[in-house]
Amino acid sequence: MSDKLAVVADIGGTNTRVAFARGTTVQTHTIKRYRNADQSGIEPILRDFLTGTDARPEAVCIDMAGPVKNGTGQMTNLSWTITNDALAETTGAHTVSILNDLQAQGFAVAHLEASSQRPVLPGRPAEPDATRLVVNVGTGLNVAPVFRIDGRTVVTPAEAGHIAMPVQNEEELRLRDWVAAQHGTPSIEDVLSGRGFERIHAFLSHEDGDDSPALDAAAIMKAFETGDPRATHAAKLFVRFMGRYASDQALIALPFGGIYLVGGVVRHFGPHLSRLGFAESFADKGRFGPYMTQFPVHLVDDDYAALTGCASHLAERLAT
């Protein structure tokens, strides 16, 4: 791995964080935060970050929420277009990368501290180069398989939040039809995301004949934590879909290196996954139930994971 100086940046929906890194280590004391609403793009942010330093970064890597193709990224919730050429011109770096934000999480998982991971399911001990799988449950839903091929990390992009909603009983069929009537063709993201949690609760209110205004996710979570029956029912349904989705994706990728749950929504559910039935839902694969016990599952609680992923990706590129 290279330890040349790099600039890494994580563009979120509201803020962008920028830092220096060497090798796979982010120099956390250098992190600066910028409000996206105050900026016209990533280039002025990078110029401000480098102003007043004599740093000459060898490389720069940006991760962002949005599709990336052929060296160009388009932010989903901002009118920012980011290109390799513009990043190189702004920073003077010779090595430039743009990653989707979930890809950055994929590059990070092999380098996370044990203290930033909470065990959810034990699985079996993992080989160092075994495939891993990142599952993001947040504002949206997606996965990122992480492969090690000839000493290099490969994180493939996906749009796996938009696959069909996996329903297995009468209540879930009614939920699917209710979502379809309200929002069109239902996908798993429609019930497994921040707004998905709200929709599940609204559906249960509809089932109960309660036409009160819908609650937001924070209010539902607060009600759940005080023992409210409907909120508890919603949380159990939500976690059931989470376990089923993670196990479905595991059977596709075979991540014997572990499954890593990331995202703000899953962090809120983290302390409750066991009692809400995550393990039972994950293992609910009929004759393949025993097979599922091979996959360790971790909850990632590291606010700098995406920056670490950018640094790790650059370190591999610079070492070749």
CATH architecture of the largest domain: 3-Layer(aba) Sandwich
The CATH C-level class name of the largest domain: Alpha Beta
Note the beta-strand portion. Answer: 15-25%
Mean pLDDT: 94
Number of domains: 2
Largest sheet: 6 strands, mixed
How many helical elements? Answer: 11
Relative helix content? 25-40%
* Uncertain residue segments: none
What's the total count of β strands? 15
N-end to C-end Cα span = 9 Å
- Reading the helices and strands in chain order gives EEEEHEEEEHEHEEEEHHHHEHHHEH
Q: Could you tell me the radius of gyration in angstroms?
A: 21 Å
Choose one word for the global shape.
Answer: globular
| Structural class by helix and strand composition | alpha/beta
Tell me the CATH topology of the largest domain. Answer: Hexokinase, domain 1
Which helices and strands occur, and which strands form pairs?
Blueprint: E1 5-11, E2 15-22, E3 25-26, E4 32-35, H1 42-50, E5 59-64, E6 68-69, E7 72-74, E8 81-83, H2 84-91, E9 95-100, H3 101-108, E10 117-121, E11 132-137, E12 141-149, E13 152-155, H4 170-183, H5 194-207, H6 217-225, H7 229-253, E14 258-262, H8 264-269, H9 278-283, H10 289-292, E15 297-300, H11 305-319
Parallel strand pairs: 1-5, 5-9, 11-14, 14-15
Antiparallel strand pairs: 1-2, 2-3, 2-4, 6-7, 7-8, 10-15, 11-12, 12-13
Summarize the structure.
By secondary structure, the chain is α/β, with parallel strands linked by helices. 37% of the residues lie in helices and 23% in strands. The protein has 2 domains: 5-112 and 302-319, Nucleotidyltransferase, domain 5, CATH 3.30.420; 160-300, Hexokinase, domain 1 (3-Layer(aba) Sandwich).
